[in-house]
Predict the structure.
Amino acid sequence: MKRLCKSGLIAMIVAATPVLAYAQSADLVLCDRLAADPSDPDKPADAKGVPEIAASDIATAIKYCAVAAKSSRRAMYQLGRAYAANRQVTEAVSAWRKAADKGSTSAMVELGVLYGTGNGIARDEVQARKLFERAAEAGNPRGVSNLAAIGGGGAPADPARQRELLGRAAETNAEAQYQLGMLLAEGSGGQKDDAAARALFEKAAAQNHPGALERMGAFASEGRGGPKDSSAAKAYYERAAALGDEDAKKALESLRCPYKIKDKSGKLVTTLCF
């Protein structure tokens, strides 16, 4: 593929996104396109994001995110992602520190992970916990889940506190909606509420969250928290499976092969499929 000069790239971006071009720099638009984190609360709604930065895009992402980072904290966070993808841990840590200092909760989480694992930085669980707490207090879903995993001060995770923290982010964030829905569905940290859980899963599913789509399939199949609807359940499972959810794939297989033949000992012999 032929390389395009910077002016050519900018022209393409302006042509493709005329409204955004006036609102922010072309460098930031391209940085978002190549390196935005789908779970970052700072990510603009019209930026899809990428779970992992493609190897072929790393150099370009570093180039344009470095320029955009001079005036944007999310670009600084995304620059850290690009450096991390390029295995430049020292540079990634530096970028994430700067982004965290400017209030990026996603950068706080990434730094917390590095402190918690000792990957490229001296292991420090106390510092990791502090970073997760800051992110969680600001409503970052990953901050909440990581804080729960590491525990507070060595104490067991507090599901009630998780509910409280997730509730702040669940108004707009799909991951928070999904995680809070799971707590409500399991009755963890408070009263069990299938109807409220289903409503949260439905919101997250509308944003194509794989886990929420799978849960909506299960709830629709069982009639939990709302009407039973086999056709809707299958549709939810299919959408989740297309996004790679393994539980949804298994559920679809069970729908296709619902009858199980067992021997006298109860061992599965075969299944009957449609």
About this structure: The mean pLDDT is 86. The CA atoms of residues 8 and 40 lie 29 Å apart. The first strand starts at residue 259 and ends at 262. The first helix runs from residue 6 to 16.
